[in-house]
Write a structure and sequence with these properties.
Jelly Rolls, seven-stranded antiparallel β-sheet, 28% strand, alpha+beta
């Protein structure tokens, strides 16, 4: 019996010690008091770059209220770590954040309760300014929550979310109104924003698992219980200066068949010189003398050809004269057909109303131009209003 108690005690101490280690590198538990919420374990995925990873587990009812954060009253559940610092107010300095996250294949969302897996929280207001959030579509989005404007960027789609590690890097300038945010996921930039980034701008990072709007889930699914959620992280890091995490791609090498402007000019000049020399050769070449016999044959054949043509022409004229009545009728019918033929635009030409037709055409053109001018609209610099069904 005593040995069992000692064994249980050792396990508890080990788990607690792992949880205490989460305070390293300036991060500590944030509104999280459950032993199972944050621990360190051997990498169960076999894919992480570090053999030891952080395991976050959130169970139904895991909430804690410490003013100004009243999670239980606000229907929020949480298993998170956060920066243990007193962040500065609005600043023009850039801060860099990096972490890696792994969603298991059996991870289940909790919509309409929204899952958040990385938050930039304004300590002065007690609410999140920017969040990484899973909505109704199952995709991971990055978006703002500090005002009523909708600024959301899709960063990982639902098909690629589970079963692999994702590296997330954020550059943030927390400033009102001259801030900026850049987000990279797995080396690709997925969000770029310029403008106001916070309200009072005392921003710190928290990460892990957070469920917001638990009461909404219970209203929609009164017969269901919120799922137990487990995900893994590699510890987050924060830098005040550019740490070089993002490396600009090298410039594309010039193609071998590309030519410099100078060589192109020389080639064009050589081509022009060759063309000029060929023209000069053609102009200087004397015509070849023709034989007298050939000239006489050509002259004789030309005379006979003209005589035959003249006779044929006389015959044609005589036949046309005999059928002059029919020809007149044909010409008259063709003239009427031409008068009745439509123009390419589908309208029939009326010589008596040509002025009116021109006036109608001008009026129609002016109307079309006015419609085109009225159809121009100003461009909204922000995305569409926040409708969660899109996320």
């Amino acid at each position: 019996m005593d040995s069992r108690i000692i064994g249980i005690g050792l396990i508890f101490v080990t788990v607690f010690a792992h949880a205490a280690d989460d305070q390293r590198e300036g991060f500590t538990r944030f509104l999280t008091d459950k032993v199972w919420a944050v621990t360190e374990v051997g990498d169960p995925t076999g894919l992480a770059s570090d053999p030891i990873v952080q395991r976050f587990e959130l169970r139904p009812g895991d909430c804690l209220s410490e003013p100004p954060f009243n999670d239980c009253e606000n229907s929020v559940e949480r298993a998170e770590l956060a920066q243990d610092t007193n962040p500065p107010s609005s600043s023009s300095d850039a801060y860099w954040y990096r972490w890696e996250v792994f969603f298991p294949e059996d991870f289940k969302g909790s919509y309409p309760a929204r899952n958040r897996h990385g938050q930039f929280i304004d300590r002065a207001t007690g609410s999140a300014a920017w969040v990484f959030e899973i909505g109704s579509t199952g995709a991971l989005w990055f978006g703002s929550r500090f005002d009523d404007e909708s600024r959301f960027f899709s960063v990982i789609n639902e098909r690629e979310l589970r079963g692999q590690w994702h590296e997330i890097i954020v550059e943030g300038v927390w400033n009102n109104p001259d801030g900026r945010i850049n987000v990279w996921v797995n080396g690709e930039q997925r969000a770029r924003y310029r403008g106001v980034t916070c309200g009072r701008c005392k921003i710190f990072l928290s990460y892990g698992i957070s469920r917001v709007g638990v009461n909404e889930f219970k209203k929609r699914h009164p017969e269901k219980e919120l799922p137990i959620q487990v995900i893994y992280y590699l510890p987050a890091g924060v830098q005040g200066d550019d740490p070089g995490w993002i490396v600009a791609p090298p410039p594309k090498p010039a193609k071998e068949d590309e030519e410099t402007p100078g060589s192109t000019v020389e080639i064009q000049r050589e081509t022009a010189d060759e063309a000029g020399s060929k023209t000069a050769e053609k102009a200087a070449a004397p015509p070849e003398p023709e034989k007298v016999e050939d000239l006489e044959e050509d002259a004789h054949s030309t005379v006979e050809s003209r005589a035959e043509t003249t006779q044929e022409g006389v015959t044609i004229v005589v036949e046309s004269a005999e059928q002059s009545g029919d020809t007149g009728e044909i010409i008259k019918a063709e003239s009427q057909a031409i008068d009745a033929a439509p123009e390419p635009n589908g309208q029939t030409i009326d010589s008596g109303n040509s002025d009116k037709s021109d006036l109608d055409a001008d009026t129609e053109t002016d109307s079309m131009n006015s419609q085109d001018a009225s159809s121009e609209k100003s461009v909204n610099p922000y995305p569409v209003p926040d409708a969660d069904d899109r996320r």
